[in-house]
Amino acid sequence: MSINWVMLSPTPPHSFIALPNERSLYQSPARTGLSLATTSPYPGTQPLSISSSTGTAYITNQRIVYIPTTKTSDFESFACPIANLHDTHVAQPFFGPNVWKAVVQPVANGGLGGGGGVELKLVFKDGGAFDFSTVFERLKEKVLNAREAGAGAEAVHLDELPTYEDARSGQPSPSAAITTGAPLSLNVVAPAMVSELPEITIAQADPEPAIPSGPPPGYEEAQRESVAEELERQIGQIAGARIQ
Question: Tens of pLDDT along 77-94?
Fold first, then answer.
């Protein structure tokens, strides 16, 4: 909730100087963008609008910090206590990188003028939005529990929040350490084998009928009658032709 209030180291890469009892838990890739804008400015006030295309976002046990790659006189750093970030979630657009969003609760003299609500967006161009969100949500839960117990953020127990290591280094991220549980036991019980196959009866097809060796009964008599009728027909045709 403060602009340009983070103490930076004088030598490159100009990382931030930690507060007393502050421990870094997450560091984003260097191509992470930031946007700060007033959602509903008060009448007569100048709306807030700050953006950076590339930079590095950090989560510590006390706050989140953003350091732009290219610093200007208007924007050198951003920081906000963990408990002052509300409605945090990851947005997944159809096109473009994932965006982590939050509503910032400003305080007096923090540099977030303009009144009204202030929306923070972190654009993870090289991935890491869900790692960032997982670490933040676990940390915020512990910070709020510590506040209810009357302790400060520096008293948060961090045993379950190991320091983040970039996936390119081959080390697991905090989200993996937090969410990874005991390996699942996949005990597959094989079905019992059938000792004896049931008896199967196959019906035999009827044998082909035997081919008769001779003509059917009455065949010769029918043949003689057919020949006699044909002769009578031909004789009748010849006789008729002669009469004409």
Answer: 999 999 999 999 999 999
